[in-house]
UniProtKB/TrEMBL annotation, chains A, B:
Its EC number is 2.7.1.169. Phosphorylates (R)-pantoate to form (R)-4-phosphopantoate in the CoA biosynthesis pathway. Residues 70-142 form the GHMP kinase N-terminal domain. Pathway: Cofactor biosynthesis; coenzyme A biosynthesis. Transmembrane segments: none annotated. Pfam families: GHMP_kinases_N. This is Pantoate kinase. Keywords: ATP-binding, Coenzyme A biosynthesis, Kinase, Nucleotide-binding, Transferase. It catalyses: (R)-pantoate + ATP = (R)-4-phosphopantoate + ADP + H(+).
Length: 277, 277
């Protein structure tokens, strides 16, 4: 058992998805596509008498993280620092769950494989209702395409071979639990149509155009998001909405060119990883 | 079509493996485990009237690279710069094949997915007889465990969740084609035993101990490699032989501590990736 361990988990913006619930949380998940970000969450775990979770210096209730510690049978203090806001479509809760799994496995010498740790984090996130596909995407990195739903032993993944710069602005949050807990029939039909189109032509341009179409068809587009996407399109850029948040992301300098003051980052080339010893 | 594109592919040292030939080069491959390195190969592709391949400034014959260009239906000049020696167990030929696939897809707007490009490079390497498992490992990064042989649609992978520093020394090359072209029965039995043991406990220590046992059981250990591994063990370090080369790799500072003058790098956290635009 070492004193502590730290993992970095990239943020993940989903462009479109379909929801695939199942009684088995390793089988449940989403299909869809997104982009992992060089902005992410750094998670440190150290042994402690009781489970305590903090995010950016504040103690927080974070059910997926508590679920991960319980599944691994360990008790630790989890300290997370995030470059991304919580609840705005960046997969921060999934990142905290996955980072906790990787770091706790190292600290407590649990002896699990990477797939096992991804599975633990995916199940924890599904059971908490905070996400369906972020964890497996964040474990992979790049621009992940989730061909099948579920944890690694169930889901197949692919990726778009491109590493553009990414800009994003956030106007506010949307509740993943509320949307996933409601009727997802329309959303899922739109997500499956978008996935078929992307698999046919796995390019950045196709990903953005299908993401835009999905936001409209799934009736998730808000006025502020729609206006910002239009502003980017008006200056010749390409943008879409992050699922699920009032967040707009663009490739290259689309949002800057349209007069916004976005955060700037890159597609992250790697999945979640322990920091080098 | 852009002017050129560049990809970085990490080196890959296999610790142990079993050979699984098949008439279909996407199904053929190896099972086993290894470590990807932050030292690797940078591959640039640009359009050209005929296929030309260079490695560190010298024009070379490189069948896997030519196979990749043919499979993609493009003609280009491939320029590779390698931090690692060719033919000494670092997966340089696999890196050149995979880097060519990623970069050529970007230059010529071929529109393939990442899995498709990994498949093209894996098939090219298998058909050339220069490797069986490096390409899929290099596409994944980290410390890859190849659970099943073959390209992404056939092979399942997992990983050891650890990122130690790595040292290595090379005394010379071994011919992958000669060894894979001979009787691999003993080697494959030893590799499957090692894989079962690693899957049971996917840690760095188990990986190294099983790799050492494999080198002995597969009768691939040379005197110089055996002596260097013993030297590292004598100072309390952990080392094994790279398959297939007269190369010793150690975690941490094992080779330095034993008085060698090794190259030093890290486990690479990412798979092969295009350089950011």
């Amino acid at each position: 058992m070492s004193d502590d361990a730290t993992a970095f988990v990239p943020g993940h913006i989903t462009g479109f998805f379909s929801a695939h619930p199942d009684d088995d949380p390793a089988v449940a998940g989403s299909r869809g596509a997104g982009v992992t970000l060089s902005h992410g969450v750094t998670v440190t775990v150290e042994p402690a008498a009781e489970a305590v979770v903090s995010l950016d210096g504040e103690t927080v209730e974070m059910e997926p993280v508590v679920n991960v510690l319980q599944a691994l049978g360990v008790t630790g203090a989890v300290t997370a620092e995030s470059e991304l806001p919580l609840g705005a479509g960046f997969g921060v809760s999934g990142a905290m769950a996955l980072g906790t799994a990787l770091a706790a496995n190292a600290v407590f010498s649990c002896g699990h494989s990477e797939n096992e740790l991804v599975t633990v984090a995916h199940q924890a996130e599904v059971e908490a209702g905070t996400g369906l596909g972020d964890v497996v995407a964040q474990a992979r990195g790049g621009m992940p395409i989730r061909i099948d739903p579920g944890a690694p032993s169930h889901g197949r993944m692919d990726g778009i071979p491109a590493r553009p710069h990414i800009e994003y602005v956030t106007f506010g949050g949307l509740s993943t639990a509320d949307i996933l807990g409601g009727d997802t029939t329309t959303l899922t039909a739109a997500g499956e149509t978008a996935l078929d189109a992307l698999v046919e032509k796995p390019t950045v341009e196709r990903f953005l155009s299908e993401s835009r179409q999905f936001a409209r068809d799934a009736t998730l587009l808000t006025d502020r998001v729609e206006a910002a996407i239009e502003d980017v399109r008006d200056v010749g850029g390409d943008a879409a909405m992050a699922m699920l948040g009032e967040t707009v992301f663009a490739v290259g300098t689309g949002l800057s060119d349209a007069g916004y003051d976005p955060k700037q980052c890159r597609v992250h080339p790697a999945g979640a990883t322990l920091q080098s010893e």
